[in-house]
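User: I'm new to structure prediction. If I give you an amino acid sequence, what do you actually give back? Let's try with this one:
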Amino acid sequence: MKQDIFQAIADPTRRAILTLLAVQALTPNVMAEKFDMSRQAVSKHIKVLQECDLVKPEHQGREIYYHFNAKKMQEFDHWLAQFRQNWQAQFNQLDKLLSTIKEEK
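Assistant: Good question. You get back a string of structure tokens that encode the predicted 3D arrangement of the chain. For your 105 residues, that looks like this:
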């Protein structure tokens, strides 16, 4: 079953894994050491991230290195940008209102 990207990034451990992978590709064993959890637990998180196309595996001999998929995250950022513009407009209106109230005092 393919996971939803929002479900994937809702989990703090998966967000931390993405942060690590944004810096460098890592194997599940190395990630498990950084999170003080079992390799199996890390593999379950990676599976969810991989189903959402947020990470890409690369086989090197017997090891699998996982890479951060910046392109997929960029797609998510573009979707989120439309909301960011709305929030910014509302904050600008609030700033104007607060400035007006402050000037009236």
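You can read the tokens as a compact description of the fold. Here is one thing that stands out. The chain has a mean pLDDT of 93.
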